[in-house]
Amino acid sequence: MSSRPRENPATPIRPLHVSILTLPESMMSPLSGIYEVLGAIHHFSQYDDALPREARFHPEIVAPARDLPSLTSNLPLRAQKTIEEIAHTDIIIVPSMMVRDDVWERGRYPELVAWISRMHAAGAEICSACSGIFLLAETGLWKGREATVHWAYAASFEKNYADVELRLRDALVVSGDRGELISSGASTAWHDLILFLIARHISPTAAQSIARFMLIQWHTDGQGPYVVFSPPMAHGDALIEELQRWLEDNYSAGGTVEALVKRSELPERTFKRRFTRATGMAPILYIQRLRIEEAKRRLERTDIAIDEISWTVGYEEPAFFRRLFKRLTGVTPGEYRRKFRVPDFARPKR
Fold this sequence. Notes:
Layout: E1 16-21, H1 28-40, E2 57-63, E3 81-82, E4 91-94, H2 110-121, E5 125-129, H3 133-137, E6 146-147, H4 154-160, E7 165-166, E8 172-175, E9 181-184, H5 190-201, H6 204-214, H7 238-249, H8 257-264, H9 268-279, H10 283-301, H11 306-312, H12 318-329, H13 333-340
Parallel strand pairs: 1-2, 1-4, 2-3, 4-5, 5-9, 6-7
Antiparallel strand pairs: 8-9
Helix pairs in contact: 1-5, 5-6
């Protein structure tokens, strides 16, 4: 139990108003999770006196209109307030949205973009959970600044907002002159966002307490371990695509840069420039990403020794493999296996 002094009930603290901005594309689970955690913090003070006895956040579901069409999950939801009814808010959060076919159409919600900009000018913190950054970036507030997003949406986001620097390895990025622009990464990275807000506006100890009580967590390893390598194929270069297809079956010992150059029948420098232009990465990095992705699958699904996996995917020196794996994923092979391996109790019995 914490020894932190109790709040003085004679001096009540105004809870921060949190506008959870909801659209038809919104996903229910992060939306409801954010709402419930922020609204319930003070109810848990009976278990840990590091938590305040009075509400510190007043979350509300806010939308352009009270009656919303069913969300992405086809669950109905009614907004508590419309944006026209909110003259002031302290925090705006745009939860995860389903960006269908990875295509975000700008300009669909001009009234929301204008409202967010007004609230920011009046002092509001602006936060995204996962793909919520697509809408928020339309305000221009992130221009020339850093953000994060679900790694699967990176290409689409960069196409729409080339002036925003993505930090995909990070689960949470704080930007802005006042640290008031906060973006969180894939799916449950809303945990990091909520814990950050609790730590900032109540205390780090309170954030730790809520993490323990509700079994939510900081993703201290970032998004690196979760990123799946999905090679770009729709680049229009038939020769490079043919070489990529060949690499799918020859990524290990036979799949070297020298072998690719030979198969391409191009001068080495010409091949490297052409491959990099088509795929967005140098041939050596592309091969490394393929090999590490296969190693990840074997770590998840088998009990094969790490050194043997190293040899299988094309690295004769296990020490080099371990360093490369850590550089590309942010964790060691052993840490990755512990994080993602299916637990014994969930495996079918032989």
